[in-house]
Design goal:
The chain contains 2 helices and 4 strands. By secondary structure, it is α+β, with helices and mostly antiparallel strands. A 4-stranded antiparallel β-sheet has the order 1-2-3-4. The protein is elongated, with a radius of gyration of 27 Å.
Length: 152
């Protein structure tokens, strides 16, 4: 049972503690700060770069994406720029694959492909397209995409 002060009124329940409103404001401010930090670091993640590359590939209507699997093998960040190595493997013949290097830049919180360069191709099939020797797509053209040639 609580003792009544000399005035005869009950002492405030949160006496000596922060008011509930102040606690709510601090929790909300901490949540906002955390969300802002996560959005910055979330953009600098392998998953965010993967989404940017996948969106780029989805815009390329000439690709038959059901003919290959896509795996982002390595991503390196340099500020608002990133480089990624992507492996495209044939779904018909697992020994056939092409590796493509992508250079991306962060624009409005999203990764956009700036250029791409075929890095390697491997497999025993002579029907695979030869890698292009250029280091980046010419200005005004679409970045390179993997191209596996169909068998006979």
């Amino acid at each position: 049972m609580r003792k009544l002060p000399a005035s005869g009124r009950a002492a405030p329940v949160n006496e000596g503690r922060l008011p509930v409103l102040a606690i709510r404001i601090m929790v909300a401010a901490a949540a906002v700060a955390l969300a802002m930090a996560c959005s910055k670091w979330g953009a600098h993640s392998k998953g965010a770069v993967e989404r940017g590359i996948q969106e780029h590939l989805n815009r390329n209507t000439q690709l038959l994406s059901h003919n290959f699997t896509t795996q982002v093998e390595k991503v390196t960040f340099n500020g608002d720029a990133a480089d990624a190595v992507v492996k495209f493997q044939s779904t018909q013949q697992a020994s056939l694959f092409v590796e493509v290097g992508y250079h991306l830049r962060l624009e409005n919180g999203r990764w956009e492909v700036v250029s791409s360069t075929p890095l390697s191709g491997q497999g025993g099939d002579s029907h695979m397209a030869a890698p292009n020797s250029s280091s980046a797509s010419p200005a005004g053209t679409q970045p390179a995409a993997p191209q596996l040639q169909p068998s006979h």
